[in-house]
Amino acid sequence: MTVKERYAWAKEMYQKIGTDADRALEILKDIPVSMHCWQGDDVIGFDHDGPLTGGIQTTGNYPGRARTPKELMDDIDEVLKLVPGKTKLNLHASYAIFREGEYADRDALAPEHFEPWVRFAKARGMGLDFNPTFFSHKMAADNLTLSSPDKNVRDFWIRHGQACLKIAGYFADETGQPCLMNIWIPDGYKDIPADRMAPRARFRDALDQILSVPYDREKVVVSLESKVFGIGMESYTVGSSEFTINYAASRGIAPLMDNGHYHPTEVVSDKISSMLLFFDKIALHVTRPVRWDSDHVVLFDDETREIAKEIVRNQALDRTMIGLDFFDAGINRIAAWTVGMRSFRKALLYALLTPNAQLAEWQDEGHFTELMAAQEALKTYPFGDVWDYFCQSCGVPTETQWPDEVKKYEKDVLSARK
Ligand code: RNT
Ligand code: ZN
User: Fold this and answer.
1) Which residues contact 62 (CB under 8 A, 6 or more apart)?
2) Ligand 1 atom showing the smallest separation from residue 230 Cα
3) Which residue's CA lies nearest to atom 6 of ligand 1?
4) Do 215 and 254 touch, CB atoms closer than 8 A?
5) Tens of pLDDT, residues 196-227
6) pTM score > 0.85 for this model?
7) Closest atom of ligand 1 to CA, residue 325
8) Residue among 38, 117, 184, 337 flagged as catalytic
């Protein structure tokens, strides 16, 4: 059977339970999913030669890491060939590209330092998202930035945030697509703090100063990412969940939930509905925490599907800014990106093929047996046939084809990076 024939058969199966596969695919291809640039080079960037700091860690040393802007762009191009649907590119400030002999510190970054990225994105019809980088820098040596007791340090990072807001506006203007600017700081303490309030008060005031720079809220969506702990900051994190939700709610910005940033039995899929009831827009970092905030490659697993279902069945596709955030250096990095991006789009497809109205009706009527049986039945529906057809119609390899592409790229390109 051809991919098309498999699809025709699968479509009928889904029709029987009341879902329209053609319509699902139409919606699916236009959902923007933001691909993080930092999977390609283990979160290093181009503006420093020090280590990755901030209490996050990339583990593994698989050969082929992108070391230059050109290599990273080549790798992203390769991934784009393997990933179906509308993709945005998510950059960090540390990926500024300087001309020969030029350098600007984080507080002096300007649109011109991202001009090559804008050219790259525009040529591919991609939108850009952005993140100030409050780590991997000498002014963040002790993992204190916007909450630092040292005013000099705080002011430096406030200027960085303000500079990034301008760059985010430039991205939106140039690409014609809104830019999410997500703020995450590593700040916290390893051991039991003597004062939990003052750092949070300083963080609040610093954020207010960053946001005092005028920006167009139609074009730039600012979000604030929470976290429960970091490596070396196990006892206290300034930007906790309560802090960020309250800050975002009171200042009219978006909360960002990274599903690696909660206690291991908490799930972001259960938080989305509550957030949607009180916020205009929410943002996500989809990742895969394994026992801790380990940022494993996103898979087509239960929680990933559940997150996608919450977005789709609450009609929140245009209110949720979806981005991925993981970094695995233990396997081929192109494959890591590809699996993560494909997995999240698969999860969106799975959600779109779920007869959500029928399931909700059963819940309301108390038919929990039918509900459980149907949810289980869906797991073995001919989902793969719809997915392969979607890939083929987007001009990218099907599920069994893409690994060969990656192997070829590894042989031709990555293996030469010694
Ligand atoms: C860290 C946060 C943050 C980073 C990226 C690189 O725990 O998840 O989003 O992963 O900014
Ligand atoms: Zn994150």
Assistant:
1) 329, 330, 331, 332, 333
2) 7
3) 43
4) no
5) 999 999 999 999 999 999 999 999 999 999 99
6) yes
7) 10
8) 184
